[in-house]
Amino acid sequence: QRALASREFGIGDPLALATAETGLDARILLIEDRPGSAERMAGALRQHHAVTIEPDPQAALRLATEGGFDLALVSLDLAGFDGLRLCSQLRSQDATRAMPLIMVAEEHDRARVVRGLDFGVHDFLMRPVDRNELMARVRTQVKRKRFTDALRGAMQASLQLAVTDALTGLHNRRYLDNHLGALFADEAARRPGLAALILDIDRFKAINDSYGHEAGDEVLRTFAERVRQDTRPVDIVARYGGEEIVVILPEAGLAEARAIAERIREKVEALPFSVQRATRTIPVTVSIGVAIRHPEDAGPGDMLKRADIALYRAKAAGRNRVEQ
Ligand code: GH3
Ligand code: MG
Ligand code: MG
Ligand code: MG
């Protein structure tokens, strides 16, 4: 079932990823100022892990912040320093929040251990530290961390996939609808300009018919890439339908929107499209409908409708044109 889920998302199996390296080879920061105890713990841990011993809490905090550690063991009875406070600092700053922490405490210190657990320290060991218990608790925390990291990565990847068009890598229609709705609702009154372009490749069916569907796909990918290059990061570029792309220009008036559309149209026409199977390049042109938001628009659909009507006019007038 896991394998199935990960195939669906097109991502690696997070559990397999996390358990493949079963607790081996972690980088461990051991914050302990009793030399005997530090050496005993480090000796055991070094069978499987890389261990850095740091007796000074300030230096330890700096080291941990610089990153690169998978886990820290923190003595609660550092000379002249409150180990629990160090734990709290490590838990509260962004750079170290996700790093697993294990407290090392004296038997009489159980009340502070409980406080540490309360504010999110992951685990603890009581002195004298048992070697097998030490290894087991470290292994468990490292595995948990690797699993949550892998899961977070997988979730981000699948969220990304849900709003991305697989063929072109552009945003998909779902993304466009969500963001355009929000843009309209938030800024309806204030925004100086908001414009939409609908771009539709001319006679695309003929390209498919002459060169094959795969060549058509390649043309689409190149087309999408050129449109993206000709727009700015604030613009939304989304695949709207088969060979139609919508561009939302959040800061453009009509003149600027027309100019951008004209620039895209010219470039598509001027640079021939090459595809793998065909020896010749393929001439491609695009028709573009332009619309801007009107104050009386009930929603973004009204603006897109006008762009679509303008696109239809461009087609009717002979294609390879920009109309508004
Ligand atoms: P025009 O827009 O100039 O009126 O003519 P057209 O030939 O482009 O007409 P239309 O927009 O109606 O047809 C678009 C064609 O695009 C139909 C469909 O087979 C093809 N198409 C849609 N999606 C894809 C795709 O992902 N890949 C390929 N290769 N073709 C696609
Ligand atoms: Mg059409
Ligand atoms: Mg078309
Ligand atoms: Mg079309």
From TrEMBL:
GO molecular function, one term: diguanylate cyclase activity
Species of origin: Methylobacterium brachiatum
GO BP: cell adhesion involved in single-species biofilm formation; negative regulation of bacterial-type flagellum-dependent cell motility; phosphorelay signal transduction system
UniProt-listed Enzyme Commission number(s): 2.7.7.65
Domain GGDEF: 192-324
Protein name: diguanylate cyclase
Catalytic reaction(s) noted: 2 GTP = 3',3'-c-di-GMP + 2 diphosphate
Lineage, opening ranks: Bacteria, Pseudomonadati, Pseudomonadota, Alphaproteobacteria, Hyphomicrobiales
Gene Ontology, cellular component aspect: plasma membrane
Domain of life: Bacteria
Domain spans labelled Response regulatory: 27-142
Alphabetized UniProt keyword annotations: Nucleotidyltransferase, Phosphoprotein, Transferase
